[in-house]
Amino acid sequence: MGKAAAVVWDQSFLGYDLGGEHPLNPVRLDLTIRLATGLGVLDGVGLISPEAASDADIERVHTASYLNAVREAPSSAWDVGHGLGTSDNPVFERMHEASALIVGGSLEAARRIASGESDRAVSIAGGLHHAMRDHAAGFCVYNDCAVAISWLLDNGFDRIAYVDVDVHHGDGVQNAFYDDPRVMTISVHQNPMTLWPGTGWPAELGGEGAEGTAVNLPLPPGTRDGNWLRAFHAVVPGLLGAFRPQILVTQCGVDSHQEDPLADLALSVDGHRAIYRALRDLAETYADGKWLAFGGGGYELLRVVPRSWTHLLATVLDRDLDPNAPLPASWVSHASRLAPNWSLPSSMTDDADPGYTPWSGDADSPVDQSILNTRRAVFPLHGLDPDDRRD
């Protein structure tokens, strides 16, 4: 990596707090930054504090009436609609301000790359990929990923690849650019028959004039590191090679972990580390090194998210951590005070082997059949042979 990577972070991100026992607890962000700091990943890195996004930028992908509803919701005595006030998206004080700051962080990360100051940038508070044009969904009020991509399209980029590795389908970003041939959205997620939001089938290929720019790779519950990586490498590199993006934007949700309480894939922290390294390599190979990374889902707050996203930060910064590195005693002490009855790991590994066997063209297992279904749906639209394992 030539230029120093940009890391966008401010404690104010913790204001995006859906409250009570909501799964999206901002403590996961705080613990990540504390762990990355304790392990030296952020030594000498000037963390970038963003400004809240303007209404004009948020309205790149959301309606003005929706912004008004979000702004007024905390003081409204009536049902505000727009997906607000539900168990997934409860209303909270300063909801607009906190959500606009998340968007601002993702925009600042995008600006650092567009300006040429950095080739890579990361905001772990971003990745709210479910929010739709006029309503909240899946813990997401504003879709920072889509806003950042829209901004990039107006600031020097006309071929953008978005790769979403969250366990849930990246539906909000797909919907935002479904008819736009300049943006390829690739989502690797749990089979939608078994998990919300129930979308993300291989047949969802993009709208008229943009066929082949929506790509969906659904995987069966219980998929582990090796099979996940087998599927990813059988689909994603070939498509990026054909699409030739100028920048790679990634949503790096870690709710694919075997301990996550909201989903059913079975990846490890070691598998997540392997994914980030693969994304970095793909950015170098196909996007001239330009990589914009966001966080996303992840609901095992102490054991998984901080370790996985510390590996993400380390990967973006080219400061890859030894998986066997012990967790700092100060971090363990702090986390133990937050959750005295929580069993904490001792190192940055789950002692899992993320090695995989490359896809050989067969369809003998459910994962292999998923690979073949996706390749047969989308590869011909890019002039690729779906049955040729060399793609």
TrEMBL record:
Pathway given in the UniProt record: Ketone degradation; acetoin degradation
Pfam families: Hist_deacetyl
SUPFAM superfamilies cross-referenced by the UniProt entry: Arginase/deacetylase
One BP annotation, GO: epigenetic regulation of gene expression
Keyword Transit peptide assigned: no
Molecular-function GO term, any one: histone deacetylase activity
Annotated InterPro entries: AcuC (IPR003085), HDACs (IPR000286), His_deacetylse_dom (IPR023801), His_deacetylse_dom_sf (IPR037138), Ureohydrolase_dom_sf (IPR023696)
UniProt KW keywords: Acetoin catabolism
Alphabetical list of Gene3D superfamilies matching this protein: Histone deacetylase domain (3.40.800.20)
Residue span, Histone deacetylase domain: 22-315
Family of the protein in this entry: Belongs to the histone deacetylase family.
Name of the protein in question: Acetoin utilization protein AcuC
Originating organism: Umezawaea endophytica
